[in-house]
Amino acid sequence: MIYLAFTAGLVLLIVGADLLVRGASRMALSFGISPLVVGLTVVALGTSAPEFAVSIRGALAGQADISLGNIVGSNILNILLILGVSALIVPLVVNRQIVRQEIPIMIGAALLLFGLSLDGQISTPEGVVLFGGLIAYLVTLYLQSRRRPAEELDLELPESSGWDRHWGVQIGLIAGGLGMLVLGAHWLVQAAVVFATWLGVSELVIGLTVVAVGTSLPEIATSIVAALRGQRDIAVGNIVGSNIFNILGVGGLTALVAPLPLPVSPALISFDMQVMLAASIACLPIMFSRHTISRWEGGVFLAYYCAYTAYLILNSAHHDALDEFALVMQTVFLPLTALTLAVVTWRELERRRHGILP
User: Fold this and answer.
1) CB 3.0–4.6 Å: which of 144, 229, 245, 308 could bond 249 by disulfide?
2) What is the pLDDT of residues 39-59, one digit of tens each?
3) What's the CA gap between 94 and 233, in Å, rounded?
4) pLDDT for 133-154, tens place per residue?
5) Closest among 103, 102, 94 to 138, alpha carbons compared
6) Domain map of the chain by residue range?
7) DSSP labels for 6-63?
8) Model confidence, pTM
9) Sequence-ordered strand ranges (E) for the chain
C-alpha cells in the first residue's frame, strides 16, 4: 500500500500542477495580464506547485527535514540534472534578460536562504523576508512588462482547446488542481517517511533525493520537451524561474505556516545548501559565455549531479569509501571546475573587449 500511496501521490502532484497552470494561465490572460507576467509567475508557480504542497505539508507535520530538503534538493536537481540533460540534447540558448536579471536574483535568493539558516532555524519573520522578496520580484516583472511590451518572451502556455475559455471552467481547473496537490503531497510525504524508516536513512536524504525528484517532475518534463522542440529559451527560463519560486515562495511560505520556527539540519547548512549555492553561482559564467550552455557544460552539470547523489548515498550508508570520495572531489574536481569557469569567463571578456559579440 505504501508504494501505491507514493505513486498515486506523484501522479496527483503532476496532474494537479498541470490543471492549476492551465486554469490560472487562461484566467490571467482573459483578464488582460501579459504573457510575460503569466509565464514567469503562473507557469513558474505551477511547476513549483508540488514543492509548495510537499514542503508546507512537511512543515505542518513537523518534518522540517523533508520540507527544506525538498527545496534545496529540487534546486540542485533543476540546475545540475535538468539543465545538464537538456544541454546534452541540444545546446541551450540563454535569453539576455535571464543572464542580467533572473540568474543574479536566483543567486541572491540562495545566499539569503543560506544566511538566514546559519542560526539553525528559519523563523516566521525570516519567512516574511523570503516571501516579501518573491512579492518584490513579481512586482518588478509586472512593471517591466508594462514598460517593455515588445520584448515579451515567447513563453509556452497550455494550448487552449475552447472548453477552458469560460471562467467557470477555469475556476474548476484551479480548484481541482489545488485539491490534487494537497492530497498528493499528503500521500507522498507519508510514503517518504516510511521509506526513510525502511531504508535506515534520514528524512533529509529522502527529501534531497526521492522527494526532490518527484516534485521536480514538472520541471523535468517542461525543460526536456522544450529542448527537444527547439524552444531552448523555455528550457532555461523554466529552471531559473522555478528556483527563485522554490527559495523565496516555497521557503518563505513554509516558514510562515510552520507552528514553530523551522529547524535547519546542520548537515543541510554545512553541505547541501553550499552545493545549491555553488551550482547557482556556476550558472553565471557558463550562461554569460555566448549566452549558451554547450553540450560539454551540460555534461559537467550532469556529472556533478551524479557525484552529489553518490556522496549522499555513501554518507547515509557510512561507507568506508566516503572519505576518499570526498578527498578526490575537494582536491581534483572542484579546483578543476573553478579553473575552467575562470578561463571561460576570461575568454568571453576578451572576446567582448575586442568587439566580438555573441
Assistant:
1) 245
2) 566 666 777 777 888 888 888
3) 6
4) 999 998 888 787 666 544 444 4
5) 102
6) 2-353
7) HHHHHHHHHHHHHHHHHHHHHHHHHTT--HHHIIIIIIHHHHHHHHHHHHHHHHHTT-
8) 0.79
9) 92-93, 121-122, 262-263, 292-293
